């Protein structure tokens, strides 16, 4: 993975934000699918 510095710092920040949003979306979709399959998944998941 390439780390951009200098005048690419803004692009790097935007990329991190997009990466974080995509990660949260994937996490939400995964949890939703697990809940649909098993209702007991909430008991196993450590909710922070």
Report the total helices: 2
Biggest beta sheet attributes: none
Q: Assign an overall shape.
A: rod-shaped
Q: Per DSSP, what share of the residues sits in E-state strands of 2 or more residues? A: under 5%
Please write the string of helix (H) and strand (E) elements.
HH
What percentage of residues falls in helices of 4 or more residues? 55-70%
The N- and C-terminal alpha carbons lie at a distance of 29 Å
Mean pLDDT: 76
- List segments where confidence is low: pLDDT < 50 over at least 5 consecutive residues: none
Instruction: Find the structural class using helix and strand composition.
Output: mainly alpha
Overall tally of domains: 1
| Radius of gyration using CA atoms only | 16 Å
- Counted beta strands: 0
How would you describe this structure to a colleague?
- The protein has 48 residues and is an all-alpha fold.
- The chain has helices spanning 9-37, 41-44.
- The protein has one domain.
- 69% of the residues lie in helices and 0% in strands.
- The two termini are 29 Å apart.
- It comes from Homo sapiens.
Set out the fold topology.
Layout: H1 9-37, H2 41-44
Features:
48 residues; mainly alpha; 2 helices; 69% helix; rod-shaped; Alternative protein COL14A1
Quickly describe the structure.
The protein has 48 residues and is mainly α. The chain has helices at residues 9-37, 41-44.
